[in-house]
Amino acid sequence: EIGLLGMIAIQRSGVRLEWDDKAMRFTNDDAANKLVNPPYHSGWKI
Hints:
With about 45 residues, the chain is mostly helical. The chain has 2 helices and 2 strands; from the N terminus they run αββα.
């Protein structure tokens, strides 16, 4: 989790990010939330 948050923070540099650990999402940045659980490419799934 911490590694993912670090990578998102680098990509969203200049933006203050507020993380809700219980909801596993950012409370103030929809663009950052899209990076938390991005859609898979066609043909891939878990």
